[in-house]
Amino acid sequence: MTMLGSILRARSGPWEEHLKGYNLRGSNDLGEKVADNHWGLHNGHAATLQMFIIPLAVSIKLPSPVSWIPPSDGYCLNIDGASKGNPGLSGGEGCIRDKHGAFLCGFSFFYGMGSSTVAEVRAVYDGLRLEKQRNLNISILYSDSHTTLQAISAGRFPHWAVFPWWRRLLLWLI
């Protein structure tokens, strides 16, 4: 018997009758298995949660397939920027790969305090700067930031805080 079950059975109260005959491992006192409910909890677990008025909510996420599409010519730049808090400590990293997926070079930088948008834009900037230093031709940019990719496509900077990097970034993309 679990500790919660021991505590509940030791106390007297109106819930004692509710739990009588079931333990919290999903079987009754006779050792028979109790059927699972639609939350994936045994009746004893669900009853205990409901006794404390804890709502039972389940969200099911289906897996989504992920694949990599290699560039037809040139190289691809994969970047990611993040901040711990918004704003918070931030950084960015990226790598350049050829059409076979082979790693050519990469970078990782700590940016200090900033937002996730600033970190994403700076990661794009640092990746393109690496491309220029190595005389490579980036044909595809991969990022998980929809905001940054949309801003690059539209030619508008996403936030005033990224302006110092944005000016040069756009010059490199033209």
TrEMBL record:
GO terms for molecular function: nucleic acid binding; RNA-DNA hybrid ribonuclease activity. SUPFAM superfamilies: Ribonuclease H-like (SSF53098). InterPro entries: RNase_H-like (IPR053151), RNase_H-like_dom_plant (IPR044730), RNaseH-like_sf (IPR012337), RNaseH_domain (IPR002156), RNaseH_sf (IPR036397). Pfam families: RVT_3. The lineage of its organism: Eukaryota, Viridiplantae, Streptophyta, Embryophyta, Tracheophyta. This is RNase H type-1 domain-containing protein. PROSITE patterns: RNASE_H_1. Residues 71-174 form the RNase H type-1 domain.
